[in-house]
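re: that chain from earlier
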Amino acid sequence: MRYALIGCGRISPNHIEAAKNNHLEFAAICDILPEAMAEKSERFGLESVRRYTDYRELLREEKPELVAIATESGKHAAIALDCIAAGCNVIIEKPIALSIADADAIIRAGKEKGVVVCANHQNRFNKSVQYIRKALEEGRFGRLSHGAAHIRWNRGENYYSQAPWRGTWAQDGGCLMNQCIHNIDLLRWMMGDEVDEVMSYTDRLTHPYLEAEDLGMALVKFKNGSYGLIEGTTNVYPKNLEETLYIFGEKGTVKAGGTSDNIIEEWCFGDNLDDPEFVKATYHENPPNVYGFGHTPLYADVIDAIQTGRPPYIDGEAGKRALEMILAIYKSAAEHRPVKLPLEECSTMDFVGRFDQ
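^ sequence. v structure.
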């Protein structure tokens, strides 16, 4: 299967390794910075792979079957729509877009063209997350009470100065949209997906050079009667502390933690179907960074979906739901009121100047 990567920045090594692990044929790579492509080509032995600074030219000349989009977030939608129009299946790095309208356009275009659209929420493929999901689908939690997602990370000025689009409303959003979206996606997915309303606060406390937030706190009411708590920040001193996910039900309690929900730290069920210590030891990964090991199985799933004609495990609708949750948090904080879902329209651009008053 002919494959192309658009965007050779911070996350691109995970995509390159996932493509290689799944034996995809590299048709081309693309970035507006030739030096970024040169560095990745040398590091991953892709010297013979063609390079483009214009992705439209890549699409015309190479006609890949599968394209991964790993550019700055604000460009995801336009590139995805061009790839879909060219008949390409797409893997879109999180977030799928920065507005509800763009997410809807991507989903609609994918259906019209009959191509696979995958939102890159790779942590759903964590061994720990998959085992928690299995317990959930088997009904072992009983009635869900509440869940919590904590993302307690650090990002300093060096990180933001590496790429001026970071922390801007037009191209990124703040810590919730960039760093916290994976765990927010997991919380919504585990707690039934359907949200009634969101109440929140966001603020920019220690990063005056950003446009968007570095702290977000939210309460979520799900339609199944359960509740969610979200805490996301890049203000933790002096380095990343943890990313944790809690699920509480009438018959079960689970905590996933570690670098990015890669470790089961608590496992307690009234049915006693498995040994908690065995579960903790077995469903335990130690990835080298916060991106984890999920890209390779995500790619495998997308390839199978393309070959069999089924939807991918994480489709465009899933990407939209994660985006919608964060936009609802932004909207609630900006308007000082609870926000009902679904959101008919909302964009990060609605919050320009939010912290500059």
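The domain at 2-123+295-314 is CATH 3.40.50.720 (Rossmann fold).
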